[in-house]
Structure formats: C-alpha cells, structure tokens
Amino acid sequence: MRRQLKNSATQNVDLEESIHINKTDNRNNLEENLGNEMHDLCRKLFPICRSITGDGFRKSLNIIKEDLGLENLKAFEVPTGTKCFDWEIPKEWNIQDAYIIAPDGSKICDFKVSNLHVLNYSIPIDKEVSLEALQKHLYSLPDQPTAIPYITSYYKERWGFCISQKQRNQLIDGQYRVYIDSELKEGSLTYGELIIPGETEEEIFISTYLCHPSMANNELSGPVVTGSIAKWLLSLASRKYTYRIIIIPETIGSITYLSRNYKEMKANIIAGFNVSCIGDDRAYSYLPSKEGNTLADSVATHVLKHSHPDYVEYSFLDRQSDERQYCSSGIDLPVCSVMRTKYGRYPEYHTSLDNLELITPSGLFGGYKVLKQAIECLEANETLQSTVLCEPQLGKRGLYPTISTKDSSAIVKNMMNFLVYCDGTLTNLEIAEKINVPLWELEEIITNLKQANLLRVIK
Fold it and tell me: How far is CA 220 from the centre of its chain?
C-alpha cells in the first residue's frame, strides 16, 4: 500500500512537472513570437526619415496604427505658429533628397543611403562650394570615426551634412556640389493619442516619441513597445483604470500636448511612464519623477527590483527626455521613465550605430514585459481588510496545503504575512514591498483569500 501511495505521489509530481514544462514552453514561444513581431515593425519603420513635424512622422504613426490594429489611435494636427506655453509650433519640414558631389564625380553623404547624412531640419541648398567652405557645414565624430552623427537645427535655419570622420578625412581639395531638396513651410505638428476607457476615470499615462530618423533603440523601440502595450490593453476583458497613451515628437510634442490637456491630466493621472530606449539587451534603467515618491516610482522600482535586481537607478537630475516637461514646475505629474540602457549612456546613441542590430527581439520583449508587469501591478493594486480577528483557520477553508512540497511552506508564509498587514490602510503594493514578495506572486493567494471571504475591498 505504501509503495502504491508513493508511486501515485511520484506520478502526480511528474504530471505537475510535465504541465509546468509545457506551460513554460508555450510562454517562451509566445515571448519569442512577440519579440520578433516588434523587431519586424522596427525594421519596417527604420528607413523612414522622421522629424518633429512632417510626413515622415505621419507615415510612421499610421504604420504603427495599422500594423498593431490600433483603430482608435487618433492623429491631431497643431498649426505652425500656435503658442504652446512659452513655445511656438515651428514650420513643417519635409525632405525628398540630398547629397554631395565630390570633385571626382562621386556621390557622398547620400540621403537615400542614410537619412542621418542630412542635418535634420536643413534648409534647401543647391550650389557649388570649396572644401574649406563645405567643412563649416559638416558634422562628424572624431572619437567614433565610422559613425554618422545625428544632428538637428530645429529653431535656427541652416544647412548641413553629417558624415563619418573616416570619410571626412578622405575629402580632397576642389569644388563640391551640395544639394538638399527640402522644404520649410506653414504646416503643422502631428501627434497621436489613444484613450482606452476603464471602470474609473483615474488614468495611467504612457508617453513615447517618434521624431528621430533612422535610429532603432533611441527612436523606434519606444513607440513599438508602447503600441504593443496598447494592443494588449485593448485585448483585456476589463480594465480598472483609463489609459491615456500618446505618441509625440520629443520636447515640443510633450509641451504641445500639455498645453492642451494638462488640467485634465493633473486631475486624473495617478501614475505615468515615459518610454524610451527600451529595446537593447544590455541593461534595465529607471529614472524617477521629480520627488521620486509617486505611485509610478513605487511600481517601477518594485517590478525592477524583483525581476531585474541589477537595474541602474539614475537621478532626476540626469533627465533629458519628456519627463522634463511632465515633472516641470506647475505640471508636476507622477511620471517616471522605464528604459533598457538609458539614453546617452550607450556608445551608439544618436549615431548611425544605433541600428537594427542593437535592438533585439529579446531586448524589445524584455522592455515590454517590465512595462506590462508594472501595469498589471497597478491594476491589481487595492486596499484590503481582513474580515476576521486573529489568524484565520485556513484548513477548514481548504487554504492549507494537504501535501508538503518545496513551495508549500513559502505559500503559507506569504499568505500569513500578507494577511497580517491587511488592516485597511495599506495597498497590495505597499504590503508586497513590506514582505519583500513580488505582487504578481501574491495574485493567486489574494484571489483565494477573497473567495474564502477572508478579505474585503476597502478601496
């Protein structure tokens, strides 16, 4: 009889392990597929020349909308000259072609080979200049001789080309024809907004930017991961919170959006994330809000601490992206930044080396997963209160394990530790932090305790 019981127990363990392995394999396949899909979308967007205004931004936004099925992602146009706080919408910039013809007849700095070759927002030009005159309009990186730098001149009209230092060193004396077929006109700035309704008017805010030309991690990882998060949110049967998701040109876009929406945002947003540089495989990074004590900060550090404890935490003083605007004086939104390797901290940043090889399917999925876990924690976050005094009798409610496994004691410990702090004053996230357990590992415990009527929702 003992042998039969032992064999039966062994079979049960083997079955559980088999189910676990199958679930793991299925999850790994789903992760690999989603990572590949995001990388494919980045590849599709990569050749497009984008800027803070213009057709490149519109085309890219439309591709994201169509490829991810985000039917309710709306494009808004803000005319040139519109005042946005202390700023003004600039002229719209579009470009068709650009190149330099060297004295030997060869074509260099060809826009159609790399759109980084042109100073972004360059005015049109078509004339011959000497090498000495040309040098004043060339930009290169002596310490990265094979890289083409990304240089802009949004608010002062000038023309120029970006060139690798290696190619610049090979230029010969003579006359060069410089040609830039671009246009600056009275037009508009474009941004995308997607509002996903929830059960409450309280909002989770997600912002990313789409204004840089052919750079992969700095530019495309943010909107592609954010768009994929939006697609997942739309697939949920229900959502506690409303989600405000925007895809904008950096800096002028966030200033523009805030100038139109900040009062409503201040009233409704309880947590927000600026999403940038989230597709490489090197690191995870977190940049806090101005005070570093918002709900967004708490959930971001909770997820990173438990899933990637080697993450790098930066100071708010290291900010460079749109968190500057969201946390500015008088706006003061609860927004932090979640990234892979932080902008400005990887050598390929703002150069042609930030290419499709720098971002990977696994890197993109890793960034997606961290952001998704943060949102799941926010959705699960609530204030609970125990319905009984002293410890509840778990056995009679079927909550005490009847078979001892390597995990059973930890489950009971987590259950009792969670319960002891359910006094109606602490949220689930705050309790998870106190007992040092990831909130997602408490999900089943909380569900079971609710079903046993041992917890009631206070808020």
Answer: 10
Q: How many residues does the chain have?
A: 459
Distance CA 367, CA 284 (A): 8
For residues 120 and 51, is the Cβ–Cβ distance under 8 A? yes
Burial per residue of 280-315, b for 16 or more beta-carbon CB atoms within 10 angstroms, e otherwise: beebbbbbbbbebebbbbbbbbbbbebebeebbeee
pLDDT score recorded for residue 22: 56
Contacting residues for 152 by C-beta, under 8 A, at least 6 apart:
51, 119, 120, 121
pLDDT at 2: 46
pLDDT tens, 76-92? Answer: 999 999 999 999 999 99
- For residue 20, what pLDDT is reported? 47
The yes-or-no verdict on residue 386 having pLDDT over 90 is: yes
Query: pLDDT tier at 9 (50, 70, 90 boundaries)?
Result: very low
Cα–Cα distance between 400 and 394 in angstroms, integer? Answer: 5
User: Do 141 and 147 touch, CB atoms closer than 8 A?
Assistant: yes
Cα 231 to Cα 68: distance, rounded to the nearest angstrom: 7
Q: What gap in Å lies between CA 280 and CA 303, rounded to an integer?
A: 18
pTM assigned to the model: 0.92
The answer to whether the beta carbons of residues 348 and 354 sit under 8 Å apart is: yes
Q: Dihedrals φ, ψ of 244, to 5°?
A: -110, 110
Nearest to 123, CA basis, from 149, 168, 148, 90? 90
Residue 109: exposed, middle, or buried by beta-carbon count in 10 A (0-12, 13-18, 19+)?
buried
Is the pLDDT at 63 greater than 80? The verdict is yes
Residue 193: Cβ-neighbour burial (10 angstroms; 0-12, 13-18, 19+): middle
Rounded to whole angstroms, what are the CA distances from 356 to 57, 135, 247, 281? 19, 30, 21, 12
Q: Which amino acid is at 248?
A: I
> Are the CB atoms for 156 and 122 separated by under 8 Å?
no
| Chain segment 117-165, per-residue pLDDT in tens | 999 999 999 999 999 999 999 999 999 999 999 999 999 999 999 999 9
